Amino acid sequence: MPDYPVTLTAIKSVLAKHKLAPLKSLGQNFLFDHNTLEKIVNAGSVSDDDLVLEIGPGLGALTWRLAEKARQVVAVEYDRGLFGILQDLFADKPNVALINADFLQVDLDHLFQPWNESAQRFKVVANLPYYITTPLIFKLVESGVRWETMVFLVQKEVADRICAKPGGKEYGTLSVMLNYYGYAEQIGTVSKNVFYPAPQVNSAIVRITPDWERFDPEVYACLQRVVQAAFGQRRKTLLNAFGVLIEDFGGKEALAGFLESSGIDPKRRGETLSVNEFLTVAEGLRSRKQRDMR
Ligand code: SAM
What we know:
Helices cover about 40% and strands about 20% of the residues.
């Protein structure tokens, strides 16, 4: 497969030829740096057993490289104009399936049905549209698909939040939920100057490796409630921020007692709790819910 020409000039001329301009409203910033594209693909260790989902293929720069290595690439592009370009580009590439849709509306079970039998591993590798990064990531996490790995190019500030440790202002819902779901790491930073048009801020490559031995959807749902309560009112002490959980724990005193017996001072603020401490509270909530159902 000849290398797909990705240069600033080539991107500009393809867009001009099709009378298109990058749409800010769809987060269109096209990558034209070969090293960054290689780094993203390598971070996913893509091989010929893999089905790779790409969200927002754009002009196909990343898609091309993924298709050289993966068994199957499924790429979902919202923009109809770009979709037409992609259809021509990959017309004779049977391992690239292109879908013209808003990814937030896509039913993933239905999307993967044709390959459910043959695919060995499901991976996500994408340069995400920045305006919907968080809902996209949560859709993937909550989809029920047993991803082997997820590699995203996101704004540096989002990457910092995903990988944040307790205590800082970046630590929040994204950090706790994703670090329960799996292991999150930053692979490298990417200058804003390798995109056309250049965005306002730099980006970073993030890899999330799900921990399927630990993950439990019921615990995840409880953790979500606990974390939202804690970070919804960051300045309050845990006992006050956890107001919405009081009934589940059978009263404020019982909640305080539970926290103390778990080694968590109720006067602490949510942002100081480690993922494992949040998990302790979520598991406590889950066991009380199970008891109430009996
Ligand atoms: N992958 C290309 C690259 O690396 O050069 C383009 C990445 S660009 C940051 C984001 C892409 O996501 C654009 O092609 C945009 O049209 C597409 N997009 C935006 N919103 C989308 C949505 N809701 N569903 C699917 N694709 C979307």
